[in-house]
Amino acid sequence: MNLTHIEHIGIAVENMENAIAYYENILGLKCYKIEEVADQKVKTAFFQIGQTKIELLESTSPDGPVAKFIEKKGPGIHHIAFASTGLQECLDDIAEKGVSLIDKQPRKGAEGLNIAFLHPKSTLGVLTEICEHPQN
Ligand code: CMX
Question: Per-block average pLDDT, block size 10, for the chain (136 residues)?
Answer without folding.
Answer: 94 98 98 95 97 98 98 98 96 97 94 95 97 86
